[in-house]
Amino acid sequence: MNIFRIIEDIEKVDPEVYNKLDSRRNAFKYMSSVGKKAALAAIPLALGSVFQKAYGQSNSTILEVLNFALKLEYLERNFYTQGLAANGLIPAGAARTAIQKIQVHEAEHVKLLIATIQSLNGTPISEPTFNFGKNFADWNTNYQTFLTLAQAFEDTGVRAYKGQAGNLISNDAVLTAALQIHSVEARHAAHIRRMRNNAGWIVGAGANSNVPAGAQPVYAGEDNVAQGGINDVKTVGAGYSAEIATGAFDEPLTKEQVAQIVSLFE
């Protein structure tokens, strides 16, 4: 095993690796301290120690992400709870049954996140007060407005969890919990979108998501047709349009973008 070659290979992928470590000199000095006579089995441990410093996420970072997710789940749970309580808003039958199930799912997500934060000796954030009528005055009297916001919240949740996955990668248990929620949020989003007669996936930057201007930040960046450095429209072959290229992939949202969306209801 050539540790120096490993470092050089990682540098090709991440040119800033030495900024994340103390320095190139210190990194190699640390590696040298393993000693020529060190057992081969000990080398991965030393290597892991160095890169944990460079790429590992601190407990405080993980807790920050979990509380960030908890705020979103509070928002979604409260939205559905208040919507179900609004007299005559959600029609009886399949639609109401679906919203009731989604509300229960969101309540379970809140419980899981609180328990996870507490298991890491963190403090869950207090439940915020949301004003869903701040920019959508008829949200609890107009069923279509309610569904519009439901779609926006679920699509936001899917993209928000995706955007924070990298910050949880150092803790397998927490990452697994987040991904369990992420996949369910995606199912919610697809179901709500179908209830609005939309495609079950996001196409473009909201043009085909049938949402008003106030909800457009939810779809920022979804017109991207390049994935992994490859421009899908040009390379996947004849018959593949920008609509297909954007619909095949979801883009992550940054924490700042999500905060902007949530601010519409605070």
From TrEMBL:
UniProt cross-references to Gene3D superfamilies, sorted A to Z: 1.20.1260.10
InterPro entries the UniProt entry points to: Ferritin-like, Ferritin-like_SF
SUPFAM superfamilies: Ferritin-like
Protein's name in the database: Ferritin-like domain-containing protein
